[in-house]
Input
Amino acid sequence: MSPEPFTMSSQVEVAVDPLTAFTVFTEEMDLWWVRSPISFFEGWRAVAKRCEAGVGGRLLEVYDDEEASLELGRITVWEPGARLAWTSSVDDAEIDVRFEPGDGGTVVRVTGTVQPGGQGRAGLSWVRVGPPWLGSWIERRDRVAHVPKQLDRLAVAVYYAKPVAAARWLASVFGLEIAGGDLPGADDPWELIGWLEFHVGDCSLILLELQGDLPEGAPPTHTPWVFVDDVDAHHAHAVANGARVVEPIHEHGYRGYVAEDLEGYRWTFAQAGPMNR
Output
C-alpha cells in the first residue's frame, strides 16, 4: 500500500460575510500577517506580504527591490467569497482555503497537503498561522489603525527532546497561546512541523527539537520569564494541572513564582503591572 499524503487543517469563524472574509484574506494580507524577523524567509529585508489577484497570481514576500521579491506560491483557484488555492513555490505543499457561511459569519478553513516524500514546513505555516492571525485582525480591524502588527525584538528559544509534547503541556498547564493554528497532534511528525511558536505579548517563544542529550545533572542555564495578569490564578492553575513549583509565590521587587515543566526546565511567572495590561 502506497503512503498516504500528509494533510493538516485549521479554521476560524469570523463575523463577516464570505466575500468580505475572502477580500480581507487576499487584499489585507500585509495587515493580518504578524510581522517579525522570523515570520518571513528573509526577515532582515522583507517589507510586506502581498497576494496578486486571479489564477496565476503570486503570493509574494516583498523587498525594497521589488524585482527581487520572493514568490511564495502561485494561485491555482480564485473564487471570490468561496475558495482560494495555491501551490507553494518554496516547498511541496498545496494550500486550499475555503470560505463557508457559518452561524456567526464565515468559517475560514485552511488545508495543506504534502505528498509522500515531500517537504512542507514553510507551506504548511499558512495552515498554522492563517486562521488565528486572520481572525484576530478581522475582530479588531474596524476599531484600529490599518497598520501591520510588528512583534518586538526579543525572542526566546527553548529546546525539548519532545517539542510537540512540550507544546501541548505548556499550553494546558502554563496557559501559553500557540502563535498560529491549533496545537499539533501528539502523533504529528516533527519533520513536517519543524517549528512551534508561542506569542507572549509582543514577543515570541520558540520551541525547537533538542539534538543529543544534556549532561546528566546539568543545571538549567536559561529560565524564561512570563508576566501574567493574575499570578495567583496562574499559580493555582499550574499546580492543579501538575506543575512542580520549586519557588512559591514571593515578593522581591516583583511578585512571582518558579515552576518546572515536563522536561525539567524552570519558568518564572510574575505579576504584570498596570502598564503591561
